[in-house]
Give the backbone structure.
Amino acid sequence: MTNESKAALWYDDYYRRIATDICPWNEFLLPELAGTLKPEHKLVELGCGQGHVLQYIAETKLLPQENIYGIDQSQVAIDFVRAHIPKANLSVGDLHQLNLPAENFDFCLLMETIEHLTDPLPVLGKINSILKEDGVLYLSFPNYLHLPWLIVRILAEKLDKPNWIKLQPVDKIYTIFTIKKFLRTAGFELEKSVGTTYCLPMPWPWLRRLERPPLTRALNALGLWWISFHPIMKFRKVSKRN
């Protein structure tokens, strides 16, 4: 069995547990999308999982289902999304083998996914090719400039406490500096960023509950997004005219 097949089985098992909560990064992404999307736009989410964002976009009629695309390596996840938005364009696939029409999308979402890619640069290059001129990529990831979480991860591995974290088959450690370098190399420029999850989400969930949206917004107003654990970064495809 290939590593890709093993990973797909891992995610199939993972997505048999239905998540109902909106993740903090999606909580801040949704208002941004609501103020940006127009009915004629096309949007694709890569690594869409159970598709909570895609379902929101469809249910609030920000986009017709026919203009919504989602790809995940888990058949279980895709079946779940398809049951809720049957007219959307959903498929099972490996992002390293991404096969979508060139310059077809206005927006791409890569939320909590880049750290699980074996080789992110070729995938980012393909994302650039499927976006239209001046297309937008929204990206979030675990930012290990968030030192408390870095300490938790190191301790979880050293003390053999896997319940403290959810390590996935590929689970790389990145900071915003690495991500910005990747995206610059792939032909994107950073347009804006917002921080989410300043408090530890695990292994002490009660700490996460202390962080309410007003506190998050206050920390963002201080320009501290770069030390948040799950920043949302908005990148725009560099125009060929530049």
